[in-house]
Design a protein that fits this description.
CATH class of the largest domain in chain B: Alpha Beta
Low-confidence stretches of chain A: 367-378
CATH superfamily of the largest domain in chain B: P-loop containing nucleotide triphosphate hydrolases
Helix content of chain A: over 70%
Number of strands of chain A: 0
Distance between the termini of chain B: 37 Å
CATH topology of the largest domain in chain A: ABC transporter involved in vitamin B12 uptake, BtuC
CATH architecture of the largest domain in chain B: 3-Layer(aba) Sandwich
Largest interface: A-B, 32 and 43 residues
Shape of chain B: globular
Number of domains of chain A: 2
Mean pLDDT of chain B: 86
Strand order of the largest sheet of chain B: 6-7-8-3-9-10
Distance between the termini of chain A: 34 Å
Number of strands of chain B: 20
CATH topology of the largest domain in chain B: Rossmann fold
CATH class of the largest domain in chain A: Mainly Alpha
Number of helices of chain A: 16
Structural class of chain A: mainly alpha
Oligomer: heterodimer
Structural class of chain B: alpha/beta
Helix content of chain B: 25-40%
Mean pLDDT of chain A: 88
Shape of chain A: globular
Radius of gyration of chain A: 23 Å
Number of domains of chain B: 2
CATH architecture of the largest domain in chain A: Orthogonal Bundle
Largest sheet of chain A: none
């Protein structure tokens, strides 16, 4: 029979995700074995590819940076009771905002002025793309899940139109903007470390990774230390109680979506200012959707999201390495592993909980019964 | 006396660290009405859930009509002749009464054939028991009393010889309650065994042949009703002497200035149903005004309008002196209505009817939820918008001390407190507002889901607020509570104030007549 069981906090936060991850890996190992490969070899290569070398580690961190932004975006909206599926579109618009500033002002400003402006523009554009569905939900009751999905398509179409008709470099055959001027390049990590006298391979990892750490800290402070975060969480948990508490739900919907969109918009900084140095089509490649999984597995908490983003970054990088090293091992297998992790850690996160609780019940010392004085009086 | 209908022996049941049932032994003689009373969390609902198969006992045996039984689900319970009428009815509202009874027990796959067969049986059953229900009416159109008869009929149709009723009178008027008891007595005399879970001791005295009192999971009293008095039962339940109701030498109310005056409040819901029709009332300093009525007759809506949670379509509201903003800022009409944060600023505090939905944010820690509504107070937030978490924690600790909230742990989630302690926490927050104590306190269902010990405490606090010159409005569906607290009683019926009585003129009969709309010349459909 099902009973209301409760795990102690350390098991709920620490042990359960590890158990879920382990289950996903076991199922994946079985699949790898069925395909005729050695699971142990695959997992070793995966881990080695992701963390085994400075270059591998850098790629892992670079991917993780993007996932931290989109994961935080999903989490902030989620705490306000909003399921923002539009991270993809908001990230695209963030890139557009960052590119417009870089292309328009790049020749007039130096890097220390230009880069903060690009960050602000990326956040503002992402925020705008989150704010419109937010407003539609707050004042017109259009469901945020539907509108944010639709806004992904609109963003994609808008970007294609602008690139083909407006921003394409004259005479170029590829659908991409002119390259950003030098002052709009965010320093790569290898450059920064070289300046400090440390040799580091050239990888896409750039200073955005520090921005991601700062964003995670800021989200924590906002949600749990500020009054605005308190009000947002109150609305997310209980709109009626929030209304009773004098909090206007509409304002909170807007706030949640604006912050969420701004965080997603930062993807543009990592990908465009940090790596591509130009605006192109489809540079977000599903990171907005991966952010949903990252937030889910990270329990919507910044620390969890950073860890989950690292996991997904490692899967991306290690998976690419695997496809390269083992003939016959396709990227699809890595995608399958990701799917299994989302399944076990997200959708079925609580499946293992009753079993764990039972084991815990056997192992822990029996607590003393509540006071029984007078229980047999009368 | 023969074989007992139900015998439960040495029942133990534990949920985590809580021992919900401790060596419980219960014997119910066949063809009697047996009451089970206890405070919230005393284990009576757990015991009945074990009997009905929702839970399995950790140890202990159950014997039904002399045969040992292993009840692992409601299906087994029904097969053994056990029926249950839940406090919240388990009915499909758009379906007719007949279809509800038939649901899951259709005798034929052709519904018209099945309906004809069921109808024949039900007609006989209704004639035998006196449980009259309009079988072809959709449940959503049936009044509450009739829905309850439908639930009982459903259990009997499925062959229940042992009927468990969980708080059956919670939603009924005194007259409906009386009618229910007539029916139940008739059922009992025809041989049905009744098990009645309730916290209303008067009903136990009126209906039952025997009573079992539970406290902290164990049986503390068990015996025939003739052996005990109301006071003894109450004492057994709580474990000490309690005093509910009006004190003999209660301080007379000395009402002062009018602090709240509402005129002609009107409200129609989204479906166009008139929920409030021309409601006017005043609230003066130093009095407790009680709003009585059967649930769903506009009391909730009235409370929402007065507290600023919702806006009426017509009517005005003015709040009395004591604020510096000038009189215009304290007058409200349809164009500019009160909102919850303005209400708090003007010294109007509100303990909402549904503390789980509105009164607290259940997943929040106690210290977070006990500043809800006052989070913008400079005491709790810095100019830059950071929460002063230490101040909030210590403020919550003080509230817990002053209102005896247990456990005194500001870090505990709000949802983990018992109903009584949650209510104390909400009341403490509203009564001890950070800037200045409120002048007006609106309280909805002050003691719903609250145990007797806490009821006494909460009533004491409300009287203390009144004596300190506060204006208190109490909306309650418990007549006893209204009678114990109020200085003046307004009765609501179908969105109107059906009448006003000074407390000296209040009798249950008089209130019941107003509640049932008898004075308006319209008898509720039966």
């Amino acid at each position: 029979m099902s009973q209301p069981v409760e795990l102690p906090r350390w098991m709920d936060i620490g042990l359960l995700p590890i158990v879920n991850l382990g289950l996903a890996l076991i199922v994946c190992a079985i699949m790898v074995a069925v395909v005729g490969l050695d699971p142990l070899q695959v997992i070793t290569l995966l881990v080695k590819g992701a963390f085994g070398s400075p270059a591998g580690l850098s790629y892992t961190l670079y991917y993780a940076t993007t996932f931290v932004f989109t994961g935080l975006a999903v989490a902030v909206a989620f705490h306000g009771g909003l399921f923002n599926i539009g991270g993809e579109g908001q990230a695209m618009m963030g890139g557009l905002g960052c590119a417009l500033v870089a292309l328009g002002l790049g020749d007039h400003l130096s890097a220390p002025l230009l880069l903060p402006l690009m960050v602000a523009a990326a956040m503002a554009a992402g925020a705008l793309w989150g704010a419109v569905p937010g407003a539609l939900q707050a004042w017109r009751g259009s469901h945020i899940v539907i509108t944010t999905i639709m806004f992904n398509f609109i963003a994609s179409a808008l970007l294609a139109y602008l690139l083909v008709n407006v921003l394409k470099a004259p005479g170029s055959m590829t659908v991409e903007s002119a390259p950003f001027p030098e002052s709009a390049h965010l320093a790569g990590m290898h450059q920064v470390l070289a300046a400090l006298g440390i040799a580091w391979p050239r990888t896409p990892l750039n200073l955005s990774v520090l921005l991601a750490v700062a964003a995670a800290l800021a989200v924590y402070l906002f949600l749990w230390r500020s009054r605005a975060g308190y009000e947002l969480r109150a609305v997310g948990f209980s709109p009626d109680a929030a209304h009773y508490g004098g909090i206007r739900p509409r304002g909170q919907v807007m706030l949640g979506m604006v912050i969420s969109g701004a965080l997603a918009g930062l993807v543009g900084i990592n990908e465009l200012a940090g790596v591509q140095h130009r605006l192109l089509l489809d540079y977000v490649v599903g990171a907005g959707f991966t952010g949903i999984a990252v937030s889910l597995i990270g329990r919507n908490h910044p620390v969890g999201i950073v860890l989950a983003a690292l996991l997904f970054g490692a899967l991306f990088q290690g998976g690419a390495e695997l496809a390269f090293e083992i003939p016959g091992f396709s990227r699809d297998m890595v995608t399958t592993l990701q799917g299994l992790i989302v399944l076990f850690s997200g959708a079925m996160a609580q499946v293992a909980a009753p079993g764990l609780a039972r084991v815990y019940g056997w192992l822990r010392p029996q607590p003393a019964l509540p006071a029984t004085e007078g229980a047999r009086g009368g | 006396m023969g074989v007992p209908a139900v015998r439960m022996d040495g029942i133990n049941k534990r949920f985590g660290a809580v021992q919900a049932n401790r060596e419980v032994t219960l014997t119910v003689a066949a063809g009697t009405a047996h009451g089970i009373v206890g405070e919230n969390g005393a284990g009576k609902s757990t015991l009945m859930s074990i009997l009905y198969g929702f839970y399995q006992a950790d140890s202990g045996t159950i014997t039904i009509e002399g045969r040992p039984a292993r009840i692992t689900g409601s299906r087994e319970a029904i097969a053994l002749g056990i029926g249950m009428v839940h406090q919240h009815f388990m009915l499909v509202e758009p379906l007719s009464a007949l279809d509800n009874i038939m649901l899951g027990a259709e005798p034929d796959w052709r519904l018209n054939v099945a309906r004809a067969q069921v109808r024949d049986k039900l007609d006989a059953l209704m004639a035998d028991t006196g449980l009259q229900v309009r079988l072809d009416t959709p449940v959503e159109e049936l009044p509450v009393g009739e829905r309850q008869r439908l639930e009982i009929l459903k259990a009997l149709y499925r062959g229940a010889r042992i009927l468990i009723l969980d708080e059956p009178t919670a939603v009924l008027t005194p007259q409906e309650t009386e009618q229910l008891f007539v029916t139940l007595r008739r059922l009992r005399d025809a041989g049905t065994t009744l098990l009645l879970i309730t916290h209303k001791l008067k009903e136990i005295m009126a209906l039952c042949d025997a009573v079992t009192v539970m406290r902290q999971g164990a049986v503390v009293f068990d015996g025939p009703i003739t052996d005990c008095s109301l006071d003894q039962l109450a004492e057994a339940m709580v474990g000490r002497r309690v005093h509910l109701g009006r004190e003999a030498g209660a301080r007379r109310a000395t009402p002062g200035a009018t602090l709240l005056a509402a005129q002609g409040l009107q409200w129609r819901d989204a479906m166009g149903v008139q929920r409030l029709a021309d409601v006017s009332l005043t609230l003066r300093a130093g009095e407790i005004v009680g709003i009585a009525g059967v649930s769903g007759n506009g009391q909730s809506e009235l409370l929402e309008m007065l507290s600023g949670m919702a806006q009426p379509q017509a009517g005005t509201l003015s709040l009395g002196d004591g604020v510096d903003d000038g009189p215009a800022a304290r007058r409200f009409g349809p164009g500019r209505w009160l909102d919850p944060s303005t209400a708090r600023r003007l010294g109007l505090a509100h303990v909402p009817e549904d503390r789980h939905r509105c009164g607290m944010v259940l997943p929040f820690a106690a210290w977070e939820t006990s500043e809800l509504g006052y989070q913008r107070s400079p005491r709790f937030a810095s100019a830059w918008g950071w929460m002063k978490r230490q101040v909030m924690r210590s403020s919550t600790a003080q509230m817990m001390e002053a209102y005896d909230v247990r456990p005194r742990n500001p870090e505990l989630r709000a949802s983990k407190f018992s109903g009584g302690n949650q209510q104390k926490l909400v009341l403490a927050r509203e009564a001890l507002a950070p800037e200045a104590p409120p002048k007006i306190l609106l309280v909805g269902q002050p003691t719903r889901g609250v145990d007797i010990g806490a009821i006494e405490f909460i009533h004491g606090r409300l009287r203390a607020m009144r004596d300190a010159g506060g204006a208190v409005l109490v909306v309650s569906s418990e007549l006893d509570e209204i009678l114990a607290l109020a200085d003046r009683v307004l009765v609501m019926d179908r969105g109107r104030i059906a009448g006003e009585l000074a407390i000296a003129d209040c009798t249950e009969a008089a209130l019941g007549r107003l509640m049932a709309g008898a004075d308006a010349g319209v008898k509720a459909a039966i």
